[in-house]
Design brief:
Blueprint (H helix, E strand, L loop, with lengths): L1 E6 L5 H12 L2 E3 L1 H11 L5 H20 L6 E5 L5 H17 L3 E6 L3 H8 L2 H5 L7 H5 L22
Parallel strand pairs: 1-3, 1-4, 2-3
């Protein structure tokens, strides 16, 4: 199976993914594992940046396709309704099809105030992740960030 944990930057995708992999086993591919190569070599938002992300993602997905079909793979992503976001979502669906694996999508969300608080942590800054809430404010338009699939909604606290 492939589990895609999707949500805004700072929503807790990697934290949840790590816990999930501890519980069910398998492999974890965080979107920053892919993006960090592009951030290191290219200016964000340039065609070269996106080409690098696609090349690294394609190499990673080729490796995922070679893994045993019964090995769970957990991915993290932040799906935006943009040409690149749609292309990335298509690649995620394709890798599930290539493995013959079911694809489960988990959408994480939190309040805007909690999201802003989480963005500004030292750990995110050390990891070169987004820490400025301004881009999220610009994307706060509900059509800019899409949830490809939402089957069941659970309102959980960190204690759940």
């Amino acid at each position: 199976m492939i589990i895609n944990i999707n949500g805004w930057p700072g929503a807790g995708k990697l934290s949840v993914a790590r816990q999930l992999v501890r519980r069910i086993g398998g492999r974890l591919l965080d979107n920053h594992t892919i993006y960090d190569v592009a951030f290191s070599l290219c200016e964000f938002g340039t065609p070269e940046f996106y080409e690098t992300v696609q090349a690294v993602r394609d190499a990673a997905f080729t490796r995922i396709a070679a893994l045993a079909a019964d090995l769970p793979v957990t991915l993290t992503s932040a799906y935006a309704d943009t040409p690149f976001g749609r292309e990335n979502w298509t690649a995620i669906r394709k890798i599930a099809d290539m493995r013959g694996s079911p694809l489960f999508v988990v959408v994480l969300d939190c309040s805007l105030s909690e999201n802003f608080r989480r963005l500004q942590t030292q750990e995110r800054a050390r990891s070169k992740k987004l820490v400025d809430p301004a881009p999220l404010i610009a994307l706060a338009n509900p059509t800019a960030f899409s949830k490809p699939t939402e089957i069941t909604r659970f309102d959980l606290t960190p204690q759940n």
